[in-house]
Amino acid sequence: MTDIKSMTIEELSDLVVSLGHKPFRAKQIYSWLHEHLVTSYDEMTNLPGTLREKLKEYPVTVLEAVEIQTSRLDGTQKYLFRLNDGNVIESVLMHYKHGNSVCISSQVGCRMGCRFCASTIGGLTRCLQPSEMLDQIYRIQTLSGERVSNVVVMGTGEPLDNYDNLLRFIHILTEEGGLHISQRNLTVSTCGLVPRIYDLAKEKLQMTLAISLHAPNDEKRRELMPVARKYSMEEILNACRYYFSETGRRITFEYSLVAGVNDGDEDARELAGKIKDINCHVNLIPVNPIRERTYVRSTRQAVENFKIKLEKCGINVTIRREMGSDIDGACGQLRKSYMEKTESEK
Ligand code: SAH
What is the dihedral of CA 333, 158, 106, 285, to 10 degrees? Predict the structure, then answer.
């Protein structure tokens, strides 16, 4: 591997030694990359020139911001980044009372095929490297001048479909010597790749696992999410029980409400019946309509009603506050509209 920003401190130490330098140099380089967020070796002023020269064979991955949209309503910012190979991805910066949160992408495109999601329409192009996940946060912190305290892996892509890179990303993000973001301030969202949930549980991380449920039973779930044909809700919920038993972390269930599809009283009751024994929290998201599909978002009233029905069954529920609704809407839409624009210019 030559991607220096994806290396752990141990790997960096091995590299520095192999280049004929003292291991303590690794800590300095690591700090420049992951704490000071510099973009070139020339800025690493405490390194000997000979080492800096040798390191130039190990490119520093830096994303280029090609477009930044800022919401006039709440200051939410959407960033469109270009990767070294020309692919583009998007990330979002949101301001909350408890701090600034960045939503990052984990893949270029996605192969999960959820019917309501814009990110999956062109399929999967490739997985992101740990450095490319990290640099979304590093660039946003640098460009905005604001400290990032929370990270959610809820942008384009299925993080558990890029498992090894995700784990490496988590370690570099949360360990000392880098941004050192608390694992408790990190959320990873998955459509429910069951074997990977078990793997993740065994890591005993203190991050939050969010599961995209979106339906109260397998039949309805299969209509919205092709992945539901592979793993049943029962298998997913058992994996969640295991995740809690290993980590003690409460599970978040995401539930996007689609008018007339999954937002009825009976849906709420059925859902509550299945998850009531799990230490969990449900996050309701009125679906963001995308151009390519005909799904309609539930009315404000239907969302409130769904919340009340779940609460009556003893479930913790929140409704996701909408942010940046005046800038390129739902997940993956900024990237898509950019690609369509450049495509038509060709
Ligand atoms: N692949 C992961 C993470 C990315 S999607 C996952 O499936 O969880 C992040 C969340 O946004 C998921 O819950 C996803 O189902 C939801 N989502 C995607 N498109 C949406 C839309 N148009 N409206 C509402 N929620 C959407």
Answer: 50
